[in-house]
């Protein structure tokens, strides 16, 4: 558990997130660092926007490491990104961490 102004919260949360073929996610930004994991299925493009440089960084989550895909990608806190994975401190849905 970790202490917050609103009381104790879990140190880490994990979310299984599935996008069906041709389904898109929305841009989001949370204060916590997110760790994306690839488990199975088609590769997924994850885009991070670096606000200070106005640069888009693209990653491919997948299991074909020889093709440059990644099993995990870290999205630093306070960076706009396009999905929703594991994060620490945990995402609570109310904007408070």
From TrEMBL:
InterPro entries xrefs: Cupin_DUF985 (IPR009327), RmlC-like_jellyroll (IPR014710), RmlC_Cupin_sf (IPR011051), YML079W-like (IPR039935)
Source domain of life? Bacteria
Positions of the DUF985 domain: 6-78
Q: Which Pfam families match?
A: Cupin_5
Q: What is this protein called?
A: DUF985 domain-containing protein
């Amino acid at each position: 558990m970790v202490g917050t102004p609103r009381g104790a919260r879990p140190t880490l949360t994990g979310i299984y997130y599935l996008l069906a073929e041709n389904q898109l996610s929305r841009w989001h930004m949370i204060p916590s660092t997110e760790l994306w994991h690839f488990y199975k299925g088609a590769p997924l493009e994850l885009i991070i926007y670096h606000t200070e440089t106005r640069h888009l960084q693209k990653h491919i989550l997948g299991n074909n490491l020889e093709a440059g895909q990644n099993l995990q990608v870290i999205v630093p806190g306070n960076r706009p990104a396009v999905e929703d994975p594991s994060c620490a401190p945990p995402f609570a849905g109310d904007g408070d961490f």
